[in-house]
Amino acid sequence: MSTPLSSSASSGLVRSIDAASAPASLGLRHGRFEDAQALFTGSLFVSITMMLFAQAGLLTGSTAGVAFLLHYVTGLPFGAIFFVINLPFYWFAWKRMGAEFTIKTFVSVAMLALMADVGPRFIHIDYLNPLYAAVAGGLLMGSGCLFLARHHSSLGGATIVSLYLQDRYGIRAGKVQMMIDCTVVLLALAIVPFDRVAYSVLAAVIMSMFLWISHRPGRYQGN
C-alpha cells in the first residue's frame, strides 16, 4: 500500500471529522505547546484511521470522502486533492468562526494531507477485518477530531459547517456530521461493494456518536 488510496480496495478516508467549536474553547485556554501537540496528535489519529480504512476498503464522509472519489477517478494523490478541496471552506471559516479557528484548521488539514500520503511508508497491515477497521477507525477518528475540537480546530470541509451550526444554533456537531458523512458514503454505492459501504456507514455512526456524546456545546465554558 503505497498511498492510503493506492487501489480500489483502498476506498476509505476520512474525515474526517473532522470537529472543533468556538464555544468549547471560550472557557478553557491552552498554551501554544498544548495546541501544537493536540493538533499533531489529532491529525495523526485520523491519518491512522485513513490507513485502516484504506486497507479494509472502507469509505469516509465529508470532503475526505469526496477527495477519495476524485482520487479513485483521476489517480491523483489523495493528500493533494484533500488539501485543495478544503480551500473554499477557509473563507467561510474565517468569516464565521474567526482567524484562530481558520489558521488551526488550515494547519491540521495540511498535516493530515501529508501524513495520509507518507504514512503507508512507515506502516503496513497484511490483514484487517473490515468490522474491526470500522469500529477501531470510527473511535480513533472520533478521538482525533475531539483533540482538535478541544483546541479550536477541525479537519475542514463539512466539519466547519457542522461546528458553525453547533456554535450558532446549538445543534450537535456530531449529529450534523453523521448525516453528512452517511450521505457521502451512500453516494459511493455505484463504485464500492455494498458490504464495504455498510461497514463505512457503521464507522461514520460510531465516530459521530462518539463526538455527539463527548463534544457538547458550552461544556467547557467557565472552567
Characterise this structure.
With 223 residues, this protein is an all-alpha fold. 67% of the residues lie in helices and 0% in strands. It has 10 helices and no strands. The termini are far apart.
- What overall form do the CA principal axes indicate? globular
Tally the helices: what do you get?
10
Binned, the helix content reads: 55-70%
What is the percentage of strand-forming residues? Answer: under 5%
Order of helices and strands: HHHHHHHHHH
Find the structural class using helix and strand composition.
Answer: mainly alpha
Residue runs with pLDDT of under 50 for 5 or more positions: 1-27
Distance between the termini: 45 Å
Main sheet record: none
Please report the total strand number as a whole number.
Answer: 0
